[in-house]
Fold this sequence. Notes:
Layout: E1 5-6, E2 11-16, E3 22-28, H1 38-48, E4 65-67, E5 71-74, E6 79-82, E7 87-92, H2 114-121, H3 137-150, E8 155-163, E9 166-167, H4 188-203, E10 210-217, H5 231-240, E11 245-250, H6 261-264, E12 268-271, E13 274-277, E14 285-286, E15 289-290, E16 295-301, E17 311-314, E18 320-323, H7 337-360
Antiparallel strand pairs: 1-2, 2-3, 3-7, 4-7, 5-6, 8-9, 8-10, 10-16, 11-16, 12-13, 14-15, 17-18
Helix pairs in contact: 1-3, 1-7, 3-7, 5-7
Amino acid sequence: MSFNSFGHMFRMTTFGESHGAAIGCVVDGCPPGIPLRAEDIQAHLDKRRPGQSRFTTQRREPDEVKILSGVFEDERTNGQVTTGTPIALLIGNVDQRSKDYAEIRDKFRPGHADYTYQAKYGVRDYRGGGRSSARETAARVAAGAIARKVIPGVTVRGALVQLGPHMIDRTNWDWGEVDRNPFFTPDAHAAAEWEVYLDGVRKRGSSCGAVIEVVASGVPAGWGAPIYAKLDQDIAAAMMSINAVKGVEIGLGFAAAAASGEDNADQIRMRHGKPEFLSNHAGGILGGISTGQEIVVRFAVKPTSSILANRQTVTAQGEDADISTKGRHDPCVGIRAVPVGEAMLAIVLADHFLMHRGQVG
């Protein structure tokens, strides 16, 4: 299997399976001299970690990260810094229950990658989906923590803005609220309503989708390049690479199709000796290059495919069958996708920062 790497100058390669001994990643291209300890990475992994509320899978993984290479104790700074060499990170799997999948090992789960993996490779890991499992995203979050350190002055934050059919009220937006509720939503009123809604979904053995919004502040104008190195192109690819993501939009996104040219284009005026945009329908990117405004990206996550409801499928032997997926699963995978979306945006920005620096100095 190829294509396990993402990025150009700042490059991440992930490895491991859902029920294997461990997952991890190798980050190549990180500049030297950046302070980095395991605690810096752990804080972000703890946000993605399963089993933190009744609204996520109850798989108990501490997700404790180990730095295997690429750092050195610098006596001059009295701290551990990056050396410019590949940084290898390892996260152990300690709470696998492969027996939960024994009954369905020969059945293709509707909505999962079971059939397509079998069709492509002729073999698949039925234990939680193996490489296709969202468990792999823990490695991305770890790499994203390093990426944040490469882009000082840039803040990347994510939030859940829609759960199933229920959207937030944007007039209630409060970034401080995101870490005070189990949904990572900036609307406290929506969080209270979502608890009731998702409890009902969970008790029915069903699932729902979500929309996540990720915002990067402090990105200067000029990152990205026209044609085949567009910043929004790489952002879209990064978000679409996340498990269960079925749509991505930047700025006004799909709503731009219904807008007029007068309403959509962000007007500009001189303010304090420099150009200032009067709106941000473009989501901080024009012609594939950052404008200096906030970069705003949203992605839609489909409902979790592992549900208790009985569904029709076929077996690997070509027979019709019924299936009900038992075990421990998120009723909404979108909740834990928030820190993953943050990580992927940080990785893209670190990559483009280094490419920009290499091209224009």
